[in-house]
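Write out the 3D structure for:
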Amino acid sequence: MDMPVQVPVDNPDADTEWNDILRKHGVIPEKPPSPTPIIQEAIEEANRQAYENRLEGKDLDELDELEDEEDEEFLAKYRQQRMNELSTLAKACVFGQVYGLQKPDYSRDVTEASSKAFVLVHLTSSLGTNVESRLLTELWRQLAVKFGDIKFCEMRADLCIEGYPERNTPTILVYRDGDIQKQLVTLREIRGENTTIDDLQKLLVEVGAVQQSDHRVQRRATDNSSNGRQHENEDDNDDWD
């Protein structure tokens, strides 16, 4: 009886002439396709999209500054797109302030109003010593002016819900289409007393009240990045003093 012959294979994954012969005769399996071309293709596609979207989030002034660098027709397309977005946004910005709430009108001013726009309610502390609540009141005003298409409201928590615990203030309620979409009890989930307008903008993006591509969010991120670089440069200069 013929005994099976053991074929020596040092490394079945190696690219050698001997391994090619063994693969041809089915002694060892074919090598799986190299992931390199797939990875390279993904990188090229990401770079292509990044290049095509390089003007996303830039306002009209920033687009004007690029006149000497970008193709005129391409730039004109983005300028028109941005003007259309601003026009649409201007029509939607019907709020622009923080609205005080009364309990009898809560259903109308919040629940029903949320069928037309996002409504964010700040249930405030009844104590002037609550730092988080005082901070959120100030940030609420800034957000209301910046995002006039979102309705920002405020009401003392104990007047809204009888017996509401003071320790749970401030509370943020996010309404849309008649329902509470998100609730934050105090600012602990964000950054507590260190919460900034940027943190709240991230919340707006998270709940879908604002798109990540919204120029109001993008501009803020750009400004903060520039400020960060400026501080770094100042720190570097200080080292030479």
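The two ends are 91 Å apart (CA to CA).
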